[in-house]
Amino acid sequence: MADVDEDQDHPRPHVVVVGAGIAGLTAAFALREAPVRLSVLEAGSRLGGKLAVSQIAGVQVDEGAEGLYARRPKTARLVADVGLGEQLTTATTKATAIWTHKALRALPYHQFMGVPSDMDELAGTGLLSPEGIARARQEADLPLRGHETDRDVAGFVGDRYGREVVDQLVDPFLADVCAGRSDELSFQAMLTPLARALKKHPSLTAAAGSLIAPPSPPGQEPPPGLATLTGGMGSLPPALAQEILRTSPGAEIRLETTVESLQRRERGWRLQVSTGGSVQQIEADAVVLALPAEAASKLLSGLPPVSQAAADLADIPYTGTAIITFAYPRQAFPEGIGGHRFCGYRVPAREGYATKAVTFSSVKWRHLAGDLEILRCQIGGVGDQQVLGRDDDELVALAGSELAEATGVDAPPVAARVSRWADSLPQYTVGHLARVERIHASLATQPGLAACGAAFDGVGVGNCIASAFKAAESVQDWMFQEAAARG
C-alpha cells in the first residue's frame, strides 16, 4: 500500500474500508464503480468474518452463518452480480420443532418470530400447558399499551401472552438468531416488524397474523425465502473480493493488517496501520468502519467530536457460540431426522440443555442431501458462556449426547467439527435503536466517515449487506458534495 507521500500523486479520492467481513466487502463492492481508489484492510488472516465454509466428511458445509433471505432485492442482486446467482437455492422447508417435555413438538405455522397468532393451532402442539394456552388466548382482548416505549422482549410479550409463550417460543427464537435472551433484548430492535405492525393493529396476535404469508396453493412454488449458496455462504466473501479487484482500478485488499489509530486531518483522515510488525501511515479521503462495536469504539475514542458514538458503541455487548457439525450415515436415523418433517429444532433454556438450536442441514438444503446426514448444533450464548471453555472433544461429546436424546440417532458420527465464534454476536439490549441513532448522527458530523455491520440494524447476512450499502451511499453523497464545492 502507498505511504503518505505516494498518496498525494493519486487524483482519485482514496476510500479505506476497515474490516473484510461481509459488511466491509459489500461496502467496497458498492463503491467499486465510483471514481475512487479502494483499500480494504483486515486484521485477520482470512476474508469473510462470520462467513466461512470448509469440508466435513468430504462435504462443503458452512461453519458460521448459513443462510440469507433471497427476497431482499439488494441481497439477491449482490449475489447475482458476483456470479453466484445460479448457486442460490432456497430451503426445502421452514418447519421447525421445539425440543421440550422430552419430545420434538412442531412450532406452529401461524407464528412470527415466535409470537403466535392462532391459539387453537398453538394448543394442538403441546408446547404450552392448558393454563398457558388460556392465558395466551387473553392477549387479543387486552388493551394495547406500553408498546411505544422500548422494553425487553420478555417483559412486553410476557405481559401480553404470559410467560409460557416467552419461554417456549420467543426465547428459543432469539437464542437461535443471536444467542441472546429475551429478558435483556429490546422488543423494538429484535422484533422490529412486529413493533411496526402494532402501529396498525390492536394486538400482538393481530400484528403477528398480518405478517404471516398464507401457505402456497398445492403445486405452486412458494415465494423465495430463506436461501443459501450451494458452495456455502462462505463462498460469497471471496467472490466479492475477486469482483472488487477485477472492476475497481488500483483496488487492494490486505489481510493481517491492523488499524491502530484514526486521526482527523485538515482534509481527510490518517490511519496508522501495522502489518507483520511494520507500522505505516495511510492517508484517506473517506473511511468506512466495518468492525465489531468494541473495535470501532477504540478507533473513534481518540476523536472528541465523535465521543458519543465511541461511548455508545462500547455499550453494545457481544456473546459467543460454538457450532458443532456432525456427519452421520443415513441409516443412523431409523425414521429419518425428525421424520424429515423439520429442518431443525430449538431448545428452550428452561429445559437445561447446552444445545440451543440444531439444524438438519441435509434436510434443509437439497444440495446437501446424500449418503450422509449433516447436522449443526449451536452451543453457548448469553447465560451459558462457561460451556465454551470446554475443549473440542468435550463439546463434541456433549452435543452428540443431547442430539441422540432428541433424535434417536443410534450410531456414532463419521466426522465432527467444532467452529468457535467468540464474541461474535452483538446483543440489541433495551435502548439499542436510540443508541444506533446517536451513533449515526455523531458520525454524520465528520465528512467522509461511515460505519456498518452487525452492530447496527440486524445480525443477519442480509441486514449486514443493507447496512454496508447505506455506508457506501453516505460516502458517495459526501464525494458528490465535495465535488460540487470544488466546482
Descriptors for this entry?
7-stranded mixed beta sheet, disordered N terminus, FAD/NAD-bd_sf, FAD, cytoplasm
Can you tell me about this structure?
Residues 1-10 have low confidence and may be disordered. Helices cover 35% and strands 23% of the residues. The chain is α+β, with helices and mostly antiparallel strands and 487 residues long. The protein is built from 18 helices and 22 strands. The strands form six sheets. It has a seven-stranded mixed beta sheet. A five-stranded parallel beta sheet has the order 12-2-1-16-22, covered by helices on one side. Strands 5-11-6 form a three-stranded antiparallel beta sheet, with helices on one face. Its EC number is 1.3.3.15. Residues 22-475 form the Amine oxidase domain. Belongs to the protoporphyrinogen/coproporphyrinogen oxidase family. Coproporphyrinogen III oxidase subfamily. Keywords: Cytoplasm, FAD, Flavoprotein, Heme biosynthesis, Oxidoreductase.
Summarize the structure.
With 487 residues, this protein is an alpha+beta fold.
Give the overall shape, derived from the CA principal axes. globular
Structural class: alpha+beta
| Secondary structure: number of strands | 22
Q: Calculate Rg over CA atoms.
A: 23 Å
Give the distance, in angstroms, between the N- and C-terminal Cα atoms.
30 Å
Strand content: 15-25%
Q: Report low-confidence residues grouped into runs of 5 or more.
A: 1-10
Strand order of the largest sheet: 8-7-18-19-20-17-21
**Total of DSSP H or I helical runs spanning 4+ residues:** 18
Largest sheet, described in full? Answer: 7 strands, mixed
> Mean of the pLDDT scores?
93
